[in-house]
Amino acid sequence: MSKRTTLMAAALGAGILTLATVQAQQKSGATLSAMDYIQINQLINRYAFAVDTGANKGGDYADLFAPDGKFLQRGGVSHSGREALANVGYRNSRGPQSAFHYLGAPAIEPTPDGNARGKEQLVQWEFGNDGKTHRIFGGGHYDDVYERTKDGWRFKQRRFIPSQSGYELAVYNRAHR
């Protein structure tokens, strides 16, 4: 790729991000910088890797949360505190090559207190490991509160809301065995 093409692509990306930033800020009256949006997106992206791999015995997962942050899973079960969060990040891990949380379509909005809220969709997809067929085994979305801390943006609260489309999921999996 030429230097000019690279610069044009970077300018286009910055323009799109700036437009999204302005639109979100116009809705709420609060403001976040383009860098805030980038850093929150990085937090979201690191989440999938941390929960799938269980890196540092769940410590990488726990580090994504504010000191008083909490994770709410289905059924209203709440996890808070570093040890409890590390256990969540480690309990379902499948090792350093694991990947089954696919997050997308983040919608981030500033809040009047200088923090932010967001949602992103989740698809849990298992690729044919050990000769098994590919399958989608879950999904839903996350409803988040992000907090700006001395260490950067962290989850103040992350709530998992499972999809209600179990029938469609079962039909897909049966058809793709």
Short description:
The protein is α+β, with helices and mostly antiparallel strands. The chain is 40% helix and 33% strand.
On the 0 to 100 scale, the average pLDDT is 81
Taking the sheet with the most strands, its summary is:
6 strands, mixed
Strand content: 25-35%
Strand order of the largest sheet: 2-1-6-5-4-3
Flag low-confidence runs: none
- Give the fraction of residues assigned to helices: 25-40%
Q: Report how far the terminal alpha carbons are from each other.
A: 41 Å
Task: Write down the overall geometry.
Answer: globular
SS-based structural class? alpha+beta
Helix count from the secondary structure assignment: 5
How many beta-strand segments? 6
What pattern of helices and strands is seen along the backbone?
A: HHHEEHEEEEH
What is the gyration radius calculated from CA atoms?
18 Å
